[in-house]
Every structure is written in C-alpha cells, then in structure tokens.
Design brief:
The complex is a heterodimer of chains A (324) and B (450). Chain A is built from 15 helices and 2 strands. Chain A is mainly alpha-helical and 324 residues long. Chain A has 2 domains: 61 residues; 243 residues, Orthogonal Bundle (MetI-like fold), CATH 1.10.3720. In chain A, a hairpin with a 4-residue loop joins strand 1 and strand 2. In chain A, helix 1 crosses helix 15, helix 3 crosses helix 14 and helix 11 packs across helix 15. Chain B is an alpha/beta fold and 450 residues long. Chain B has 2 domains: 222 residues, D-Maltodextrin-Binding Protein, domain 2, CATH 3.40.190.10; 216 residues, 3-Layer(aba) Sandwich (D-Maltodextrin-Binding Protein, domain 2). In chain B, 46% of the residues lie in helices and 12% in strands. Chain B is built from 19 helices and 9 strands. In chain B, the strands form 2 sheets. In chain B, strands 2-1-3-9-4 form a 5-stranded mixed β-sheet. Chain B has a 4-stranded mixed β-sheet with strand order 6-7-5-8. In chain B, helix 9 runs parallel beside helix 11. The longest helix of chain B is centred in the N-terminal third of the chain and has 28 residues. Classes of the chains: A mainly alpha (324), B alpha/beta (450). Chains A and B meet through loops of A and helix 12, helix 18 and helix 19 of B.
Chain lengths: 324, 450
C-alpha cells in the first residue's frame, strides 16, 4: 500500500506531464494555425506601416504647420492651411476639373464592350488580346508628347483634319471642355485596354453551360449579355470601377504634360487636384499647404470609393435579380 | 558620323575608367600617399594640386551648359571636364546632367536640407531667389581671386544679405531683337540689321508703334511672338517690380508701374501678338511659318530658333533692345556647404567659370559668358552666326550685356507673382477674359500668395 502510494505519484505525474506535454503541443499547433497567417502577412503590413501609414500620419502633422521642408522645421498654425485651401478658387476649380476628367465611366463602358467582343471566337485570339494592352505599355509621358502635337491649337493634326470637313478649329488649350476631351482621350487610350483584359478574364471564367441553357431557352445575345455576363463579372467589375475611379481622381501625368508650363492652363482650365497639390508643394515650396490638399484629396477619394462601392453593388445586383 | 562619335565617347569613358582605376590602385597600394613624402614628390612635380589626395567630385547641371562632350549629340570642340581632370590628375569628376532646369530644381530642394547633392550644383536664374533664402546652406565662395570676374548683376544675384557670394556665374542672357528680314520687307519696313536697330531704338512705346506699322503693312500678321515673352522683357527693367527690397513684402499691386506696363502691353498685344504660348507646339511652328516677325532673344534663343526653323533663311539679329537692356536666363555654380569636398569643389567651380573656360563653353554650346574679361576674348567677340545671316553675335551680345541694368530685385515671391501676371496675359491672349477681368483674377491670385 505504502509502495503503491509511493509509486502512484510518479505515474500520476507522468500522466500529468504527458497531458501537459500534449496540451503544450496542441497549444503550439493551435497557435501555429492561428498566428502563422498573421506572421506571413506581417511583412506587407510592416512595409505598409512604414511607407503608407507613417507618411499619411506625417502628412497630417505637416498639414497643421507652416512647414519648411529644407530646414525640416515648422511652426504650428492649426487649421490655417485647410482654411486657405478651402477658400482658394483654384482648389474648387481643380476639383471641378478632376471630376470632369473622371473619364472612367465611358472608359469602362467601352472596356466592357471590347472585352465582350474579345470573348467571342476570334481568329488569332492572342494577337487581339495583347493588342489591347499595347497602349498600356507605352510611357504616359510619351503618350502625352504625341497627343499634345496632335492637339495643338493652330497647327495640330486634328484641327487640320477638322478644317478639311469645314469645321472651325477647336481651341484645345483654351476651352475648358475641349481640353478635358483631349486629356480624357489620352487617359482612355492608355487604360481602356488594360481594363478590358481584366474584364475579359472574368468573362472567361463564366460557365459556358449558362449561355447554352439560356440560348436553348431562347435568350438573345443582348439578353445573355445583360442577364448572364454582367451579373457574373460583378466582383471584377466592382474592382475595376473602384481602381479606375481612384486612378481618375489621382490623374496627373497627362494634364501636367498637356502644355509646357504644367500649370493646368492660364485660367486653370485643366488643373487637377493632384497638379494643384504638386504645384503648391514643389512650385511654391509650401509643403504645409500641399499636405492639407493631400489630406482633403484623400478624404474625397475615400468618400467617393465607398459611394462607388455601394452604388455599383446595387446597380449590378438589381440587374441580376431582374434577369433570373 | 554617329559611329565615330560613339567610339570617341566610348574611348573617353574607357580612358576615364582606366584613369580612375589607376588612381584607385595608387591610393590602395601605398598605405597612405599623403604620409609618404617620396610618393608625393614623384607624383606631383608641376602643380601643387597633383600631390593632393585623390578626390572624387560630382557636378550636376541641366540643359547644355557646354561643359562636357556627354551633353550633346554634336561633338563639342572642347571637353572642359576632361581638361580639368588632365590638369588635376588627383581629381575624378562624375558629370550628371538633368534634361531640364525644373528637374534640377526639384532635386536641388529635395536634397538641400538632408544632404546628397552633388559637390557642385548648377542653379538657374529662375529659382535663384528661392535658393538665396537658404544661402546659409551653401558654401561662401567669395575669394579675392574671383572678385570682379562677373558683370555686376550676375555677381549681385548670388550675393546674400550678409555679403556671402554663394554662386559663380556661368552664362547669362543679354537680350537683342531677332527678326525676319523678308517679313519686315514685305510689310514695307527697313530690313537690314542696322536699319532695324535704328528703327527699334527707343522705348517700348516706340517698339509697339513699329509693331502697329508692321501689322498695318503686313495685312494683319502678328509682330511679336507672345505677350509673356515681351512681358519678361519689360518687367525685368523695373527696379523693384513685385516686392519691396527692404521689407520683402509684395508690392506688385500697389506698384503703378506694373499695372501701367500691363495696360500698355495688353493694348498692343491684341493685334501685335501671335497669341501663342511660349514653347507651345504652335509657337515652335510659328518660328518657320511666319506667324510672327520678331522675338526678344538672348543668345541661347538663337539655338532654339535655328533648331526649329532649319530651312528658314531670313532670321536676323538686330543690335538693339527696347528701353535699354534686358536679361533672360543665366546660371550659377553653387557648392552645398555639407558636401564632402567643399574645398576641391570650389576650385572646380572657380576654374569652370573662369573667362577662358566660359569662352570655350560658348564655342561649344553658345552659352554666353557672364565674365567681363570674356567680352574682350576674340573667341567670344569674333563669334559669327552663319544661320543668322552671319550676324556678328559676339559683338552684338557683348554690347547688349553691358546695357543690362544691375539686378532688378527678385525676392522670395517673385516667380509666383510673375506666374500670376503671366497667366493674366495668357488669358487675354487666348480670349478667355478681357484685360480688366483678367487683371482682377491676377489680383486675387497675388493676394492669395503668402
């Protein structure tokens, strides 16, 4: 009895140890399952914090100061920068231009159309598909240089052509709307094909049986497009719309290269908000104010992105419920 | 031709590399050459710089200052960078050139505070007022050796309130009037350079009245290229155009002279300007198609005209400038104070901006020297431009340079104010606004500057 008494504890302990051991291993395994994914994505978020989050915060601090970037010092002035920007005529004109230049809507309609066409059985498929991507590979600055020659007011190619059919030359660099047309042309030239390819990829993933079944049910081409294609590519479409909108709000290269001064026209005809920010920062070396503009633009993009998300979700889902 | 050029560059680079390697070899081989008197003596015998420690210098420029063969497709007559390295075997120079002054400006202001600029940095007249605000971050280059080397306004432009000279002038842009002889002739005006010089000799009112005659005689063709181009010529003759020199406050709107010039110019430009923006596609096309007959032109503009109107044969330069003299453009070499080799960098900058070297740069790239002595150098005064009907440009611009009035004051806000007024003029030219409404917008823009 005594001996069993003596033997018992080790056995008990062993069991307990084993249990502790296995529970330790289990816990590790559980942790591994729970924690490792975080560890694997950590590098991205560390980099993001370093190069994304920190600058955003730093910009917020600077936007409240009269900042001298060269001496790296500043003086706290509260909301003065924001006040100035919100009262500046140029800011509002630049916002107007940014929204008018938001050519993403026609661009995406055309992109969807091109994608739908490429989705058919074409000869030399790869050639056509890669062909749409060629403009995207070109340097935006090179595109702008070529287009600015075509769009010259007096001796440009487009105005010359218009002259042949008896149309008065269009003042590409003076008229607000004309300048927006010209710049939107450059932007769409570059991005339409790119978006078309992404949409095409989504279309290719749609099960062909859906089309066959609906064809047997007597749905026409148009009906199939609206009732099957569009609802099926919804997630991709939302992605494309949001990236295109954000890209549109940040448009910079094309309008900046549109004339030689890069100021967006003498009457700010095509001054976008990013250009206004750049010119305030680098032109006037007023980085406090430029940071304030950056933050305002950031907020606008966030609001616009959310609005876009909800709108497109409702729009496309109502399409799908309509075509059941 | 291109092949030989490439070969030559290749050879040069190869030579430079071998040279650098030899230097590095020397420095690495002997423990410390400076400590060893024998190496010093064998290495350097003629100049004192030869026995100094090896230094690597960087120099950053923009456009084509005419310093190095690497700048241009056309081979230069002289390569000053190579020449300096030959004269100073211990120095290895890395030459960086930005395509445009704007790129160089951005780089300059990004790195001026934290460091990382080249040992020698070229600064353009357009952003010199901004640079002057940070003159304490640049090395003081004043020395008895260079005193009086430059014409007054160039030296004054790089001297800060404490009397520190922070830049050595390179080129400058004394302006004359370029015109097209055949267009003048067709409009019934005298057309030889001397006659035109006499015709335009006088103030701006005279210039514009000749313009009226030209417009009438030519049946409505434009006299000058753009209002903005003429504006800089007019406003640069005011002593304190936009800012009060003593207080630094913006006085552009209170200064009656500014508004008077604006009214004078907008009245004339309605019929006399081609209404093209400077450097626009249309403006370039106008150089050859006769859209305008005159342009205010500094020496560097000659290359622009020739390059964009190769087949036009009747561009001429008249030795005249309305209302005295005017300057457009010019640069300085500065030495950032936090550089590693301030002393050697200063020597390089001083050598490059010496009259002899700038005369060579002028031969290379047409950059007109700002050094007084260069105006007596036959290499400069004897220069003739064949494209401009063999105009004696060396003589003409030497006279034009002397006529430039010393330094109109340009402060911190000069270019913002100037931009606002330029935009106002452009709006009038484009017909977006009438002169009065456009001025009101400029007033709002200028009031917003602070």
């Amino acid at each position: 009895m005594a001996s069993t008494d003596i033997e018992a504890p080790p056995a008990d302990q062993q069991r307990r140890n084993r249990r502790a051991d296995s529970s330790m291993r289990q816990r590790l395994a559980r942790w591994d399952l729970k924690v490792s994914p975080y560890a694997y994505i950590a590098p991205f978020f560390i980099l993001f914090a370093l190069f994304g989050l920190f600058p955003i915060g730093y910009t917020a601090v600077i936007s409240l100061m009269d900042w001298d970037t060269i001496r790296n010092s500043g003086e706290f002035i509260g909301m003065e920068n924001f006040e100035f920007v919100l009262n500046d005529r140029k800011f509002w004109v630049s916002l107007r231009n940014t929204f008018f230049l938001l050519s993403s809507i026609p661009q995406l309609i055309v992109a969807t159309f091109i994608a739908a066409m490429l989705d058919h059985h074409l000869k030399a498929k790869t050639f056509w598909r890669m062909g749409t991507l060629v403009p995207y590979v070109m340097m935006p600055v090179a595109v702008s240089l070529v287009f600015s020659q075509l769009f010259a007011d007096e001796y440009g190619v487009f105005n010359e052509w218009l002259g042949y059919i008896g149309i008065e030359p269009i003042q590409w660099h003076k008229d607000v709307l004309a300048s927006h047309w010209a710049i939107a042309t450059m932007v769409n030239f570059r991005w339409t094909g790119y978006n078309a390819l992404i949409l095409l990829a989504a279309m290719q993933a749609i099960p062909r049986e859906l089309y066959e079944a609906s064809a047997i049910d007597g749905a026409g081409k148009l009906r199939r497009f609206f009732s099957i294609t569009l609802p099926q590519i919804r997630p991709t479409a939302i992605f494309v719309i949001i990236t295109a909108t954000v890209g549109g709000l940040q448009i910079f290269d094309e309008p900046r290269m549109y004339d030689t001064t890069g100021d967006g026209g003498a009457d700010q005809q095509w001054l976008t908000t990013t250009m206004y920010m750049y010119n305030t920062g680098w032109g006037e070396l007023n980085f406090g104010r430029a940071s304030a503009i950056a933050w305002l633009l950031f907020l606008i993009i966030v609001v616009f992105g959310l609005l876009n998300f909800f709108l497109t979700r409702r729009l496309i889902s109502s399409d799908s419920s309509g075509g059941k | 031709m291109t092949i030989t050029r490439h070969k030559k560059i290749l050879a040069l680079t190869a030579g430079a590399t071998v040279f650098a390697l030899t230097l590095a070899g020397c420095a690495g081989g002997d423990e410390d050459p400076a400590d060893d008197p024998t190496t010093e003596n064998t290495a350097g015998e003629s100049t004192d710089s030869a026995n100094a420690e090896p230094v690597e210098l960087t120099i950053a420029t923009f456009n084509t200052p005419g310093f190095s063969n690497s700048e241009n497709e056309n081979e230069y007559q002289y390569d000053l960078i190579e020449e300096y390295m030959e004269l100073n075997p211990h120095v290895t120079i890395t030459y960086n050139r930005a395509a445009e002054s704007g790129d160089a400006r951005e780089n300059f202001f990004t790195k001026l505070g934290p460091g990382g600029l080249a040992d020698v940095e070229m600064v353009e007249v357009d952003w010199m007022p901004e640079v002057m605000q940070y003159s304490d971050l640049l090395a003081d280059l004043s020395s008895p050796d260079v005193e009086g080397r430059w014409i007054d306004f160039v030296e004054a432009g790089a001297t800060d309130a404490d009397g520190r000279l922070i830049g050595y002038g390179t080129d400058t842009g004394p302006q004359a009037v370029c015109y097209r002889a055949s267009l003048f002739e067709a409009a019934g005006l005298p057309s030889s350079p001397d006659e035109v010089a006499t015709l335009l000799d006088g103030d701006w009112a005279n210039f514009f009245s000749v313009g009226d005659d030209y417009v009438a005689g030519s049946g409505g063709a434009a006299f000058f290229d753009s209002a903005a181009g003429v504006w800089q010529g007019m406003v640069n003759q005011l002593d304190q155009a936009y800012e009060d020199e003593a207080t630094g406050e913006i006085i552009a709107l209170e200064n009656p002279e500014v508004k008077a010039l604006y009214d004078q110019l907008t009245a004339a430009s309605e019929t006399q300007s081609s209404h093209f923006g400077q450097w626009s596609e249309d403006w370039f096309a106008g150089l050859s198609n006769g859209a305008y007959a005159t342009m205010l032109c500094p020496p560097w503009m000659l290359g622009v005209i020739e390059g964009n109107a190769v087949d036009t044969t009747d561009w001429n330069v008249a030795n005249v400038y309305p209302n005295g003299g005017g300057n457009w453009g010019g640069s300085w070499l500065t030495v950032p104070a936090n550089g590693a080799n301030v002393e050697e960098a200063t020597k390089l900058a001083a050598w490059l901006t010496a009259p002899e070297q700038m005369a060579k740069a002028f031969a290379n790239a047409g950059t007109y020297p700002s050094q007084v002595a260069a105006y007596e150098d036959p290499a400069v005064t004897g220069a003739v431009n064949e494209y401009f009907n063999s105009a004696p440009i060396g003589e003409i611009f030497a006279e034009r340079a002397v006529a430039v009035v010393p330094s109109p004051y340009k402060g911190e806000y000069y270019f913002q104010v100037n931009d606002a007024i330029n935009n106002a003029l452009t709006r009038v030219e484009e017909g977006t606004d009438d002169p009065a409404a456009s001025w009101d917008k400029a007033v709002a823009d200028i009031e917003a500057i602070s």
